[in-house]
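Components:
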Amino acid sequence: MTRAIGLPRARPEIAALPVYSRAAGAATVRWRASSNEATIAPPPAVVEAIARAGEHGHLYPTLSADNLVAALAERLSVPPHAVLSGAGSLALLQQALTAYTGPGTEVVHAWRSYEAYPILIGIAGATAVPVPLDTQHRHDVDAMIAALTPRTRAVLVCNPNNPTGTELTETEVRRLLDGVPSHVLVILDEAYHEFAEEQVDGVKLLREYPNVVVLRTFSKAYGLAGLRVGYAIADPAVAAPLHAAAPPFGLSSVAEAAACAALADSAHTGRVLESVRWSRVHLRAGLSASGIETPASGGNFVWIPVGAGTTRLAAACVAHGVSVRAFSGEGVRVTVGERDAENAVLAAVDHVIAHRPEG
Ligand SMILES: *Cc1c(COP(=O)(O)O)cnc(C)c1O
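Structure:
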């Protein structure tokens, strides 16, 4: 056993960080609807690409995942030095925060939003400035602009927003961008872009607003959450410091090969998108029939804002075989794409309603 005295001490900001939590029951339930993973396993072409890359596992990958970057640049019609890839879009977010923020600076973001934001902002040593969502569970653009100070170095926009699924229109995103000084970085986290209804395209916007960084991922629509691949698109001048802030060899050769194969398999991605779109409609209609209205979702999940009923609903879902993500006192986020799981959630809702405490 070690003695507590005399051990190295972490920076106090690190000790104070909130902890990234996982849903109760996720390991044991029949359906995992708590982490916004794809409900369909990778297709054979991706599994084969992974195996082939494994044969060369004794060799280092390229420094910056050159094959994947080239494929993405072509797909997005941008120069290769406008694209960076990394071990999940969270790694790229960390690089952006490391490069552009730090102690004494502020990062404005909506709240409730993605729970990793306050953690990563804290790791960078910056101060998070959370701005409450409006009554429709959407980013409050005017309040976010009003929260800017001379210390603001970055604004973080989650569009569609996790966990509420709400989207900004292109007009609203432009209004935000017009209200942010050009020396402040605007990070558009588009993890759910492929599922979105509004289809606001950050890559198009960054041609007009070079202070924008767009983050996207292979974890959701491409179904590779376990492989850890994300990418960023930015003006090359803005992207260069992100490169500088990256650990060398950030993406494994296996992950790169998987992502290249997934990018090429549009039929599989189409199946994922179709199942999500269908399930979103099905679950929201079922909830509405039980008297629960939900915001329209542009993600692979639905937000059920049950407030004080959150803990009971989440427990009922687990009892019906589905793990969900509960935000105590606010609501439950359910990943969609699997009809049987959505039916189990609807059964859990009906159970909770039937057993509602008196008064
Ligand atoms: C899931 C998610 C990500 C993805 O992170 P990866 O590191 O790419 O797996 C990023 N942002 C948001 C808002 C998410 O929900």
